[in-house]
Description:
Layout: E1 2-5, E2 19-26, E3 29-33, E4 39-42, E5 47-51, H1 54-72, E6 73-75, E7 81-83, H2 91-111
Antiparallel strand pairs: 1-2, 1-5, 2-3, 3-4, 6-7
Helix pairs in contact: 1-2
Amino acid sequence: MKVKWLGKTGFLVLTNNKIYNVISIERGWYRIIDDSGDDYLYPPDMFEIVERDDNIVVKEFLRSVVYHNENFLLKNDKNRIYFKNHERISAEEETFLYAECTDTIDKLLKIFE
């Protein structure tokens, strides 16, 4: 994906109106190789999308699904899984949830590699 920096030149080592390649999207922020040659995360609201790469967008969506799934469930001291509102799920539901989510996400990520 290609984006154009809309901020001041020199701020965060980026040049105003210069087009940069987004090498990944991580939790909504763009990882870009800036003018220093190093890659950093930058907030997307300071960029204009010039060319969209649907693979990057889909990968970020899948990563966010994994992130939210990991933060949706908790394990107690007996290693039992609970929803964050403290409703316990059965062992069968626990096994199904993790197996299905992990398998599906892995398959989808391989498609977009």
